[in-house]
Amino acid sequence: MSQLEKKSSMIEIKDIDNRSIVGSIEHDFELGSERGGVVDIDRSEAGSSFMAYLNVVCVVVGTGILGLPAALKQGGWIGLLILFLSWFMSVYTSVLLIRCLYANGKTRLTTYTEIAILAFGKVGGYITFFFNAWLLLGGPVLYLVLSGANMNQLCAGTVAEIGHIQWTIICACSVAIPFILVKNMKDVAWISALGVVVIFIVVFVVLIMSAMEKPKMAPSHHDAVIWDMFPVALATIAFSFGGNVTYPHVEAAMKKPQDWTKVATLGLSTCAALYFIVAVSGYLVYGSDVASPVYNSLPTGVGQTIAIVVITINVLVTVPIYATSFSLDIENMFDITVERFGRVKEFIIRAIVRILTMVVITVIACTVPHFSTLMSLIGAFGNCTLVFIFPVVFYLKITGIRNKPIYELVWCFLIFLLGLVGLIFGTMEAIKELINDYGA
Predict the structure, then answer these.
(1) Residue 205: closest CA among 267, 114, 278
(2) 35 — phi, psi (to 5°)?
(3) Membrane-spanning regions, if any (predicted)?
(4) At 1, which helix (H) or strand (E)?
C-alpha cells in the first residue's frame, strides 16, 4: 500500500468517527480512483468552485427574494429572526446533505433519492423522489407563472398584451432550448452568472426606490408578530432557501469537492444578505400594504420596469437549473448514458425526456396562475421537507445518533421542528389561500 493509500485509509476512519466526510476530501480524483475508501465520480471535466458558488446563489436567491417583504407582512418583524435561523440552518443542512453522499464508505452517491434509499430503503427513496420532483418541477412552474405575468404587464397597452398564459407558453419555449442542449450543472454555470448579476440589480432597484418613496408616504402599519399567519410566513421564508435538491449535482460539477462547505456557506450568506436588504426595506416602507412580488409596490415608472425586466431574466435563467437537476435524476434512474446508448441515441432520448418535462411544467404553469400562494405552497410542502427535515433525518439515520454530542442533537431537533411546523401548518394555510384565490 502506497503512502497516499495509507493516508486515505486513516481519513476514512476519521470520517466515520468525526463526521468530517466532506471536509476531509483533500485531493481531486477521477472515476475509479479512491479517496478515503470511497470511489468518486468522474471530475475530469468539472468546473471551478466559483462557478458552483454562482449556481448556488442563482438557484437559491431567485423569486424567493420577491416574497420576503410580504412574508414579514404575514408574520410580523419576527420573520427576521426566522430568516436568520433559516440561513444558518440551510447552511448546516447543505453540508449534511453532501456528507451523506459519501457516507456509505464505498462509492459517492449521485442523487438526493439515493441518500434516502441508503437511509430508509426503497420506501424512503420513493417518498424523497416525490418531494424532490415536487420542488424541482414546482420551482419552474412558479417561475414561468411569474415570467408570463411580468411579460404581459410590461406589454400592457400594446399589441403584445396577449395574456399571461400565452406569454407563459412563449417563455417556456425560450428556456426549453438551453434546457435541452445543456447536459449537466457545469454547462449551466454561465446561465447562473447572468442570473446572479440581474438579481443584484433587482435588490439595488428595490432598495433605492423604496428609500425614495419613504419620505412621500404616510406612516405604514407594522406588526411585531402575527401568530395565526406565522406558519405561512415561515413557508415563504423556507422557499427562499430552497436549493438542496440541486446541491448533489452542483457538487458533482466541482473540480474540488473539498470546497463545498465554503461554497455553500458563501453562497447562502450572499443570498441571506440580499434577503435582509429587500425584506427590511420593503416591509419598512410599505408595511401591511406591501405586495408580493414586492416590485408591484414600487411606483409605476422606470424603476419598476427595470425591476420587472431583470427579475424576469433571473427566473427564466433559473428554470433550466431546476429542470436540469430533475432531468439528471431521471437520466440517472433509467441509466440514460452515452456508454449505454451512444452519443446520438443518448441525445435523442435525453431530448425527448426534457421536452416532455417542459410540457408538463408549462401545462401546470398555465393552470395555476397565483404567484404568492403558489410560492407559499411549494415552500411549505417541498422546501420545509427537503431543506430542513430530510437532511437531518437521513444524516442521523446513516451516521448514528449516540455518537453525536448533545448540542448537535439539540440543533438538529430545532431544525427538524422548524421544518415540521412549516410543513404542516404552512401547507394547510397555503391550500386555504389557494382555494380562496380560485373562489375569488
Answers:
(1) 278
(2) -145, 110
(3) 50-71, 77-102, 123-145, 165-182, 189-212, 224-242, 263-286, 306-326, 347-371, 377-396, 408-428
(4) none
Backbone dihedral angles phi then psi of residue 404, each to the nearest 5 degrees: -100, 140
Rounded Cα–Cα distance for residues 86 and 238 (Å): 7
Q: Is the pLDDT of residue 206 over 60?
A: yes
Query: In this model, does residue 396 exceed pLDDT 90?
Result: yes
pLDDT at site 301 = 86
* Alpha carbon 323 to chain centroid, angstroms: 12
Q: Which CATH class is domain 50-98+131-439?
A: mainly alpha
Residue 220 is classified by DSSP as P
Average confidence (pLDDT) over 62-88:
86
Candidates 39, 13, 11, 6; CA nearest to 25 is 11
Question: Three cell numbers at 425?
Answer: 401548518
Task: Please say if the pLDDT value at position 43 is more than 80.
Answer: yes
Alpha-carbon gap, residue 379 to 422, rounded angstroms: 8
CA-CA distances (angstroms) from residue 309 to 92, 104, 154, 369? 34, 46, 8, 19
Cβ neighbors of 365 (< 8 A, separation 6 or more) are 140, 141, 142, 144, 145, 148, 168, 172
Q: pLDDT tens digits for 49-58?
A: 998 998 898 8
